[in-house]
Amino acid sequence: MADNSSTNAYWAANIRIITWCLVIWAVASYGFAILLRPLLSGIPIGGTDLGFWFAQQGSILVFLALIFFYAWRMNKLDKEFGVEE
């Protein structure tokens, strides 16, 4: 990764991945758990309603999945640009 255009492409791809991860996390934690909670309250899951489940468990599980996705995708991106460990 010697030239400037390659460095810019790497960081642009990195920022794009981070942005999408943050959007997904915000939709899951803020959107489903807070804004859409009244709409999801009638759907039962695990002894409670889906809105409460997203507020308590779902957003955490989505966050953990995003951590693993980000690590996997960044390893792939690092290999593409020749900067892997």
TrEMBL record:
Keyword Transmembrane: yes
Domain Sodium symporter small subunit: 8-84
Key word Methyltransferase present: no
Keyword terms: Membrane, Transmembrane, Transmembrane helix
Pfam hit, one: DUF4212
Annotated TM spans: 17-40, 52-72
Identification of the protein by name: Sodium symporter small subunit domain-containing protein
Lineage summary: Bacteria, Pseudomonadati, Pseudomonadota, Alphaproteobacteria, Rhodobacterales
